[in-house]
Amino acid sequence: MPRTAFFVSDRTGITAEMLGHSLITQFEDVNFRRITLPYIDSTEKAHEATARIRHQAEVDGCRPIVFSTVVDDELRAIIHVDEALTLDFFEIFIGPLEKELGRESSHSVGKTHGIANFEEYKARIDAVNFALNHDDGVMPRDLNEADIILIGVSRAAKTPTCLYLALQYGIKAANYPLTPEDFGQHTLPKLLLPYRNKLFGLTIDPVRLAQIREERKPNSKYAALDNCQFEVGEAEALMRHVGVPYLASTTRSIEELATTIMHRTGLTRRTY
Amino acid sequence: MPRTAFFVSDRTGITAEMLGHSLITQFEDVNFRRITLPYIDSTEKAHEATARIRHQAEVDGCRPIVFSTVVDDELRAIIHVDEALTLDFFEIFIGPLEKELGRESSHSVGKTHGIANFEEYKARIDAVNFALNHDDGVMPRDLNEADIILIGVSRAAKTPTCLYLALQYGIKAANYPLTPEDFGQHTLPKLLLPYRNKLFGLTIDPVRLAQIREERKPNSKYAALDNCQFEVGEAEALMRHVGVPYLASTTRSIEELATTIMHRTGLTRRTY
């Protein structure tokens, strides 16, 4: 029997989705239908949301689970209905926090995922542009500005990781592919030498790599398993030789790669 | 007096950061130092985290706030210390959820932000590659594959929004800049005509646009306020004329743009 999970928010719904997702994935044998109701920021919209939740309860024949991050007291009261189990994030956490901090919270909408300030916003956009302009070995002069430079063989997930670092953390991340021309010299490509302390490597299991490359260039030398084994072996040997830390992307999501890199290098977020 | 907020997680720490951030930003006049302790997945690391929290309590002279999303019961017990206010996300929510669903949760680590399955992972990477290969009007043949095509004047935030849609939702988003050549014809650029129902517009306040463009090309016609006013006016008129819905990026974050577009177009996430 499928259950319905609602993610209700006065803003984007991202926090509610993440909260709810992390909880419902703990119940592997329950099949959840997920419905996000974002921008519930008026009594009218709150009543609409309530109607939708009640309707779903009837359709399902059991109570939906409502994960709510709505901040406003009046709207929160509307959303709580008997026909659902409502897990109200603010209700539960804001009380202990107010007590600990010895003051009342503002109970105001829209602090998360909004434009906190223009400078922070610009930092993110600049970081995205930086990643796009320093992708795949394209290296204009301003590499000094890079917070980090990811290196590794082609298709080791460098580009998405750079973009994630830029979008989520405002980190300026460049990336440079290690290609067969770079191997056998036991030294870093010349262009990278001045930035050794900014380098971080990504590697990947050769079998997985061959699989990924095969989809892009079927039956090519590029995708052949023995070539992938050669490239990965050489790249790892080079990174070990010159002392560049590296990480395998084989079983890690983009989030895991990005957060692990942040953690290991000691970089800190520019934006929240 | 600054307070310290710890975000403690057995995985990336992203959920803990987001939850904690949404709560502490409700206390505008409290200055928080933020420390993320990710990958706390062993008793040893849990004890290290605890030592760090206790140390901070001494330094600060008051209790740190610990936002924890650690799932494992044993590790959670270690992390709870008297010297901090611990807001334990799983402890609070998993109980009511288990009761409602009539079964125990798996209490297992690593369900969120990991590689759920290779297909889902590939969908994200494919979407990122799609966004990169269909950026700024570059439109190879496979535009049929696009879930959405963002249009708007140059620097209206199309590219970061496309990348966010790809990375976070696995949505294939192309973007096409509206330039002076496209105006005055009261019709869409020819290339876009077959995909009318996939179009969504981004617009921006001309003053903000001039400010952003000025940083890229100082003293250019491109950045001049009157030119920005002209381009934005024409782009909006065109979108209204042909019935393409649009949204202003001026006061919206990338998250807000992306989620609003998802909401209005009815697109649904491919990945969690």
From TrEMBL, chains A, B:
This is Putative phosphoenolpyruvate synthase regulatory protein. It comes from the Bacteria. InterPro entries: Kinase-pyrophosphorylase, PSRP. Its EC number is 2.7.11.33, 2.7.4.28. Keywords: Kinase, Nucleotide-binding, Serine/threonine-protein kinase, Transferase. It catalyses: [pyruvate, water dikinase]-phosphate + phosphate + H(+) = [pyruvate, water dikinase] + diphosphate; [pyruvate, water dikinase] + ADP = [pyruvate, water dikinase]-phosphate + AMP + H(+). Pfam families: Kinase-PPPase (PF03618). It is an enzyme of class 2 (transferase). Bifunctional serine/threonine kinase and phosphorylase involved in the regulation of the phosphoenolpyruvate synthase (PEPS) by catalyzing its phosphorylation/dephosphorylation. Belongs to the pyruvate, phosphate/water dikinase regulatory protein family. PSRP subfamily.
